[in-house]
Specification:
Helix content is about 60%, strand content about 0%. By secondary structure, it is mainly α. The longest helix is centred in the last third of the chain and has 33 residues. One of its GO terms (cellular component) is mitochondrial membrane.
Length: about 110
């Protein structure tokens, strides 16, 4: 049987309060940025991601429109185009992550 542990003098964990971690600040920016500011900053950091997202949405929309009109061959082509645009977007995200990781190294 294990020996009982000594009672800690520290206060118990309070889930209503954020934990204090030495040397860590929850945000790098001095003022909280809104959705618009964050979107503009992220777009400037990696402009290919929004382009890929727009291409994906456009191919999907046009493909659904062609499907509704009964143009099944063109709809099938647009769905394949959508997959290519999604692949482009994923590659852009990965390249952006790699570039930001390389930039943050000293």
């Amino acid at each position: 049987m294990a020996a009982p542990r000594p009672v800690s003098s520290e206060a118990p964990f309070d889930p209503s309060q954020a934990p204090v971690i030495e040397g860590f600040s929850p945000t790098v920016y001095s003022n909280p940025e809104g959705f618009k500011e964050k979107f503009i900053r992220k777009t400037r950091e990696n402009p290919m991601v929004p382009i890929g997202c727009l291409g994906t949405a456009a191919a999907l929309s046009y493909g659904l429109y062609c499907f509704h009109r009964g143009q099944s061959h063109r709809s099938q082509i647009m769905m394949r185009t959508r997959i290519a645009a999604q692949g482009f977007t994923v590659v852009a995200i990965l390249l952006g992550l790699a570039a930001s990781a390389m930039k943050s190294r000293p």
